[in-house]
Amino acid sequence: MSFEHFLDDHTLSFIQEGNQMFICDGCEKPISGPCYGCEECIFYLHYECAKLPESIEHFFHPCPLSLSLYSYTCNACYMKGSGFSYRCNICHFNMHVECVSKPTISSENDEGLIQHFTHWHPLSLIDLNIFYDKPCCAICEKPCSPNSTYGCSSCNFFLHNSCMATIPRRIYHSFHPCPLILLTYPEYECRGCERERSGLTYGCGKCRFKLDVKCGLLPTVEAKGADMIQSFTHSHPLALLGNKDAENTGLGARHRCRACGEDCLDHGFSCSITCDFFIHTSCIELPGEIHHPLHLLHPLYLMYLPLQLHGTDCSSCNQPLDGFLLAYRCDGCNFNLHKHCAEFRPSFKFGISLHVLTLWDKRPSPFDCNVCGKKASKNFLRCVLCRFTIHLFCLPSASKTITHKCHIDCLSLTQSPLDFKLNRLEDAYNLDDEFYCDVCEEKREKKDPVYYCAECKFIAEVGCVISEFPCKTCKSGHARRSGSKQSSYEVQKLELEVA
Fold first, then answer.
1. What UniProt keywords are attached to this protein's entry (predicted)?
2. Which of 11, 164, 367, 480 has a 20 to 30 Å separation from 460 between CA atoms?
């Protein structure tokens, strides 16, 4: 009687009485009694080992387990083994055949026992009075409570009833693109807190990525009031500035925000490990993916620029990008935006719909006006797609008079500086003078145009009071550059109509 076994290429012959020198390749124990074997490749199996099923389903692991033959460490009992094991090749998960064969809850005599995927033994209600020190929950790591703790005393494994009922078996985490499955591993390094751990972990076997349960279940940015959170902006958990975890970093009180570049004082988050990473509470809520009208082909992702691209110009304002800061980027097109440039949205139309102008206020500019040829310093309009720049005064369709909720009277577009603010004509060129906007109460460039009420001497910066201009038709064409990785546009023809 022969036998075809899936782990050997040859047909195994039935041997009525095994030789004591035969060693079973499955359990690695001597063979006595009936067995199957191949003398050519010296492969022998106990009769019982040869009949083990090729694959099984087990409550301790969500994937099917296949019978395999090699050295391993059992993910259930943490003991090393060789020979047969039941293995998940996707998750790199192994169990001894003996561990798989342990009894599970299947009869009415098992009252009071619970079979849970966090542990390979049945769990029972634990009397904490027998412990000198209260054991801790394997999930939340807090002391267990009387009358609500289930566990396995032989394995020193305990769980709160509430934690056992609410822990998810599979999660999606911002630190990793693949789904993470709850597993047990004897030894691993958490990719969140970088600590050596053992026991429960959320893991991706394909990528060998693991997070301990505490890091895996940290609140996200959306959770208000949490002292420790997770965010896609950094690969480690982030601690609220001022709590013990943040204070233990040993760093000074002033830190630069990785999003906006301003100082983080006491309203932000820092890396809970040792990274020099700080971010404002407001900046941490930035979207990780945006769809921006300046780059319609693909979404832009908030990320750090690769080292070789540090100093690359922003595709919008042409100013260098700071490699220390997060920026919005499309890798395929090499299109990059400063965080603050991504906040600018086209809101002024000039010409056909493709020719859309964005107001740039309080941003230094290296551009010249395409109409008058003079420097466009601040408060200018620019079409990023075709790189067309124009002063507000040079725009024929600019609203010369507007009404706004900030002032009861009409406001007129006026060239600054205003006469009443100057003692003499030479003062117009005095760079030391300070001029302010009556809306935002911040300093303004005195040569920039303003909206002005002569009766009240009320002065408002353009960016503080307008949202859009009416369209003005012009004949302009845009052609996509063939072979351009930046997917930018250039003007083939532009004719301005003067009002």
1. Metal-binding, Repeat, Zinc, Zinc-finger
2. 367
